[in-house]
Write a sequence for this structure.
């Protein structure tokens, strides 16, 4: 293997090993990494792009929905507080 490729590959392998050994990393990530190591790297790269796009969009939508729920709840609480102050 070309040494220009060998060094980055070795660093990548060390980083993957670190994630796999780290107790704070999620089990689903570790399962995905182990599975990816058994696949063709080109296919994995394409799958990672697709997975990233799908999960980012889902997470963004979830965060937006949660944010809107918080805003609505804050507005409702503020309106109730105003009514209570006005009636006293």
């Amino acid at each position: 293997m070309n040494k220009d490729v060998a060094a980055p590959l070795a660093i990548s392998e060390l980083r993957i090993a670190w994630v796999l050994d780290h107790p704070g990393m999620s089990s689903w990530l570790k399962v995905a990494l182990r599975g990816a190591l058994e696949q063709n790297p080109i296919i994995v790269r394409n799958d990672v792009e697709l997975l990233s796009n799908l999960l980012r969009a889902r997470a963004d939508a979830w965060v937006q929905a949660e944010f809107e729920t918080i805003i609505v709840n804050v507005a409702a609480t503020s309106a109730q507080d105003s009514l209570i102050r006005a009636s006293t």
The mean pLDDT is 90. The two ends are 81 Å apart (CA to CA).
